[in-house]
Write a structure and sequence with these properties.
Blueprint: E1 2-7, H1 14-21, E2 25-27, H2 36-48, E3 51-56, H3 64-75, E4 80-84, H4 91-106, E5 110-112, H5 115-128
Parallel strand pairs: 1-2, 1-3, 3-4, 4-5
Length: 129
């Protein structure tokens, strides 16, 4: 089983924390020198992963991760996961992301509010494989 680790890239380094506890393979798209080759690999990894995970933190600077998760909620709802870490998030952004999570839940997406719950779900899927 393989998980694509999408979502917020700046601020809190959630990927390294999650990578330490996952019992499956994963693809971390964050690289030092982004180029076209990396972009193409990211597209391929996102399309072939068993699960695509989008973690959003207070460090979010743009909206592309939100666009990706909404797109995936329509194209592959059974393998898309959304996690929002609300710590240090301003009230308006938290309200907007809760509304986004509700929209995604209506599309059948699994939504979490902690890395530990997200990791627990993913590690249970490894056991069920």
């Amino acid at each position: 089983m393989k998980v694509f680790l999408g979502g917020t890239c700046s601020g809190y380094n959630w990927r390294s924390k999650l990578e330490r506890v996952l019992k499956c393979d994963y693809y971390n798209p964050v690289v030092k020198d982004w180029n076209e080759q990396h972009r193409l690999r990211e597209v391929q990894e996102r399309e072939t992963a068993d699960y695509v995970l989008y973690v959003i933190t207070s460090g979010i600077k743009g909206v592309y991760s939100i666009a990706e998760v909404v797109d995936d909620s329509h194209k592959r709802p059974d393998k898309t996961i959304f996690c929002v870490l609300y710590e240090n998030m301003d009230r308006q952004m938290a309200h907007s992301l809760r509304a986004t999570a509700n929209l995604l839940k209506d599309n059948g997406i699994r939504c979490f509010e902690s890395l530990s719950d997200t990791a627990k779900f993913l590690n249970e899927q490894v056991k069920n494989d």
